[in-house]
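Format notes (please read before filing issues)

Several people have asked whether sequences and structure tokens are stored in separate files. They are not. Every record keeps both together, in the order shown below: the sequence lines, then the token lines. Line labels are part of the format and must not be stripped during preprocessing.
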Amino acid sequence: MTELRINGYKQIERIMKLLTPFIRFKKIQAKALLLSSQILQKKNLEASDLRMLVDNILLIQGENYRTRKKRNKIELCNVLGLTP
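Then the structure lines:
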């Protein structure tokens, strides 16, 4: 298994657009990551944007294999200063 770290939302968007057609097993996560990178490029994030990010994080977490530190929606909303 390989891990790749990409810095910058614009770079993530560009790379995900190039890779998405070739992804077979993680398509749901790839689409959520692409949408999240587009949201995070905005200058001023609204509460609806932050809620979309929370939903995408939960979607990506749900598609992963077992992880020890999964945060729930309430925890993620608190981190972003939102009320659940």
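For reference, the curators noted about this record: Residues 47-63 form the longest helix (17 residues). The chain has one domain: 9-79.
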